[in-house]
Fold these 2 entries.
Entry 1:
Amino acid sequence: REAWPAKYILFLFLVLGMCFVPNDPLFLSVHLNLARIGGVVFILFQQIVFVDIAMNWNDGWVEKSNKAEEEETGSGKKWLYAILVSAAFLFIVSFIGWILLYVYFANCPTNTAFITITMV
């Protein structure tokens, strides 16, 4: 929790040290497998964090809606409409992202298959 300058310096030395690690014969296959496992773990944690953020965001706005409804009848609907509008906006952005993936990266069948599997 302390000594941040030392941690930054150690990190920089580790990054610079990785420039001098030889690629062959052992390190390339080891790094490849570690990167594959690390990538999968990172994506799983990232999805957990995104779902947690979405649930906290929704719970917060529903709570604000309930408080506004207790103060004045009908005023809590603004927060519920905000939830619907934000969800619709995020779905539209996601759909545009899929279209852009097809436009820019669907040049080979493998890419098209991965984009389609991601949509499902």
Entry 2:
Amino acid sequence: RLSMGGDGAEPEFDWERHARYFAKYAQELPEPLQSNEVNRVTLFYFSLSALDLLDRLDLLDKERAVNWLYSLQPSQKDRPGCIGGFYGYPLLPPEASEHPECWAHQHTHIANTYTAL
């Protein structure tokens, strides 16, 4: 938190509060941002970068993060003929989709692949 004292002193930066904020966003999106699920990988990238700048990568469950990222990369078993890349969001199987006919048109995206890497 930035705060200005009445004495005109420099504002103080609350490092720990910011670190907790980015650690939280790296693990799950809060309710107001859940409509941005399609940009989840990008939001994760910026949260991870902020934690790195704050020297607080220790707040991140690295194994969970890596497993989550790999879950966004299609396998040849699930998507025969797919040549790689990452989705920006968890992909539901066609039987779980509200519109299964659209499933064939779900493809990885260059921007999500860039931020995932």
